[in-house]
Write a structure and sequence with these properties.
CATH superfamily: Decaprenyl diphosphate synthase-like
Bound molecules: 3-methylbut-3-enyl trihydrogen diphosphate, magnesium ion
Order of helices and strands: EHHEHEHEHHEEHH
Shape: globular
Largest sheet: 6 strands, parallel
Structural class: alpha/beta
Number of domains: 1
Helix content: 40-55%
Distance between the termini: 19 Å
Radius of gyration: 18 Å
């Protein structure tokens, strides 16, 4: 079982179009798939699930679509947080949330505070997230520490750097799933993908369910992760 799984939840728009509906219909349907993914992760002892909900580039979409996505985020926080908390899920939003309206920012902070002590599953929602932003943000925090004289540049190593990225203190990313058929990273977890296994599926996000998740995990379990070693070294270790 992977300890940490991330998912690029892609294909909502195409799913809706295939049904002759407008794109936002697909985003609404995608919420059920999020529930399925969280349920699977909880039931199978996955420690962290990181979902790409809105990228820093998604602001460039038509304003109407962006508005629906923000509204949906708001509604989902209203309707799901209580249950997540009851199920022992710790909720975290990663990304540059300063761009959201203050009500939403407050709601996020409240949900994070309420669930902070839960340890059944950490659910990270990446919203206004970009992998490059995450790296630059860590660099900026380190630069501030250096400027304040609390950190020496020579003390910066991979582990110090990692501690300033948005998934610090969670297990390393084991498996990255992308639905919707594209084979790209779209500025998701660039730093964290160093040794993650990738799994691509043509399934469109609203059709994702526990069996799609199980198929990805099965594929992952059959791989040999070598981390630079030879296959023989891994077998004898
Ligand atoms: C993913 O689905 C959801 C978000 C990016 C918010 P898309 O909206 O990208 O769906 P497609 O890729 O256009 O089908
Ligand atoms: C990636 O999907 C972002 C999310 C799933 C939130 P996109 O649909 O934005 O990615 P591109 O534009 O096809 O690379
Ligand atoms: Mg897309």
């Amino acid at each position: 079982m992977p300890k940490h799984v991330a998912i690029i939840m892609d294909g909502n728009g195409r799913w809706a179009r295939q049904k002759g509906k407008i794109r936002t219909f697909g985003h609404k349907a995608g919420v059920d798939a999020v529930r399925e993914a969280v349920k699977y992760a909880r039931k199978n002892g996955i420690q962290a699930l990181t979902l790409f909900a809105f990228s820093s580039e998604n602001w460039k979409r038509p304003a109407e679509e962006v508005n629906v996505l923000m509204e949906l985020f708001n509604l989902v926080l209203n309707s799901e947080v209580k249950r997540l908390n009851k199920n022992g899920v710790r909720l975290k939003v990663i990304g540059d949330t300063r761009r959201f309206d203050t009500k939403l920012v407050e709601k996020i902070a409240k949900a994070e505070l309420l669930t902070a002590a839960n340890d059944a599953l950490t659910l990270n929602i990446a919203a206004n997230y970009g992998g490059r932003w995450d790296i630059v943000d860590a660099a900026r925090q380190l630069a501030e520490d250096v400027a304040e004289g609390v950190l020496q540049p020579s003390d910066i190593d991979e582990s110090t750097f990692d501690n300033h990225t948005s998934l610090a203190s969670l297990p390393d990313l084991d498996l990255l799933i992308r639905t919707g058929g594209e084979h790209r990273i779209s500025n998701f977890l660039l730093w964290q993908c160093a040794y993650a296994e990738f799994y691509f599926t043509d399934v469109l996000w609203p059709d994702f369910n526990e069996s799609t998740f199980a198929a990805a995990v099965k594929d992952y379990a059959e791989r040999q992760r070598r981390f630079g070693l030879t296959g023989e070294q891994v077998v004898t270790n």
